[in-house]
Amino acid sequence: MEELEHTCPHPRTTLTEPAIFARESTCDCRAPHEKLTIAQARRGTPVDRPVRVYADGIFDLFHSGHARALMQAKNLFPNTYLIVGVCSDELTHKYKGFTVMTEHERYEALRHCRYVDEVLRDAPWTLTPDFLEKHKIDFVAHDDIPYSSAGSEDVYKHIKEAGMFVPTQRTEGISTSDIITRIVRDYDVYARRNLQRGYTAKELNVSYINEKKYRLQNQVDRMKEKVRTVEEKSKHFVYRVEEKSHDLIQKWEEKSREFIGNFLELFGPDGTWKQVFQERSGRMLSYALSPRESPCNSPPRELSPLRSPSPPSPPARWYNARPSPPTSPKGACASISSMSEGDEDEK
User: Fold this and answer.
1) pLDDT tens digits for range 300-341
2) Dihedral sign for Cα atoms in the order 159, 163, 165, 168
3) Spatial separation of the C-alpha atoms in residues 166 and 134, rounded to whole Å
4) Where does residue 59 fall: left (phi above 0), alpha (psi -120 to 50 degrees), or beta otherwise?
5) Which stretch of 31-45, 182-196, 300-314 has the lowest confidence by average pLDDT?
6) What pLDDT score does 302 carry?
7) 52 and 74 in contact (C-beta within 8 Å)?
8) Comparing 130 with 211, which gets the higher pLDDT?
9) Which residues contact 58 (CB under 8 A, 6 or more apart)?
């Protein structure tokens, strides 16, 4: 470990430690700094001889596009030491324009990027051979789009001609200019938001009339939000009532179907009540037509001594000889005379 600390140009204890700031003096790398080709750098270098890659920029409003470009620069070679140069406010305002973040804010933002090993403050706008030699830079990483500035069509032209340029890819859809465009486009929204958060109109450079307009719009928005909240609550209440009523109707339908089913089962055409009624009616009819006989093993009744037995029945012949009752008075007289004659013959 001690040997590694002596050989490594800038030993770092943990990955979470912020990147160091570059020193004003030249690189103090202990290993001899020989010029490398891209092929040699891609094959890998000794631990004590990392490939020193330089990437520069403004890095205003540090975003994911910046971080992805630095990630590509860090991963160009197996053993890479990434130096990031950040231009000062004075130089940036002269050649590019006003920045949102100050140079110290931009320095600190770069220090806390996980891919950065060293931050070079007040980086030059154009890379000279003396600057490259002073910091022992092997390769310069930047996107391949020609960067015209400071009277030059491409400030990296001489780096490309020297074979020290390694291109990276831009991330589409995100840039500092895009973010500023969004802020300018939605300026009223952000101004109203910051007024609501306690910033003064003077701090926001907002006129008196615009301040009153923004505050009135904030009040209107708050009223709209309250109305929207009440509507949401009422919709939720109505939904709950509808849900409860639906459940009650469903339960009522289930109970009514159950009640109707039980009623039909009891009183329907083939219901239990009809079967019971038929069985009872059949038993009553059978009792009426054929009453129950006395048990065969019941003892016979004895005749009372005071009563005499009934006279024997007349012969069947007498019943058959008896004429049928007359249907008219003459027939009745004839029958009487015949009966008297019969009596005289028997005598």
Assistant:
1) 555 445 444 555 555 544 444 455 555 444 454 455 445 444
2) positive
3) 20
4) left
5) 300-314
6) 52
7) no
8) 130
9) 86, 87, 92, 96, 99, 106, 176
